[in-house]
Amino acid sequence: MNNDFSSIRLKCEGCSACPLYKTRNNIVFGVGNPDAQILFVGEAPGENEDLQGEPFVGRGGKLLDLYLNGIGLDRNSNIYITNILKCRPPQNRDPKPEEEEQCLPYLRDLVKMMKPKIIVCVGRIAAQVIISKDFRVTKEHGIFYERKGMLLMGTFHPAALLRDPRKKGDCFEDFLKLQDKIKVLGIEI
Question: pTM to 2 decimals?
């Protein structure tokens, strides 16, 4: 499987399908265990991610790691984390639909290769691309949807929690629901 993983990453590194490749420092392909059964997907890299080449590494990433660790997950061993976009949009703006369309094949290939049992969409944009274009994170967070043998769940983006700490409890409840689902499915972590 790691051979397939490497070939997807190499294709991504050589990508020039949208203008974002011109301003990137690094592609932000992902981090974690490519054999994991749990995949976390955010929207796009920010400045810190672009500089380090790893998703969720700033203040939001530290918060995400706290939630992960709180339910026995770790970005380096039993999950995989990626984004829809692999290059940073200027000034961390929302991804444009045409940029998402250019990057989605990498995510689809990754999902086909990994065959995760659970995909957690981190933030509204990721959930709208993966679960439903009408997804509302404030109303639908923590709800599991089944598609093609996988469970999909949307939750709050850590950056949103840093802006509005009142949602931190709701987000942790989502992670507790994820922990329960992991147990029910018998996923070894």
Answer: 0.96
